[in-house]
Amino acid sequence: MIFFGSRSRQIKLDEGQFNCPHCQAKRSYKHMRSTVYFTLYFIPLFPIRKLGEYILCESCNQALDMRVLDYEPPSEAELLISQVKAELESGMPIHMMEKKLLNSGHNPETTSRFLEQASRGLLKTCVDCGFSYISTVTACANCGGTLKLD
Ligand SMILES: [Zn+2]
Ligand SMILES: [Zn+2]
Question: What are residue 53's phi and psi, to 5 degrees?
Answer without folding.
Answer: -115, 150
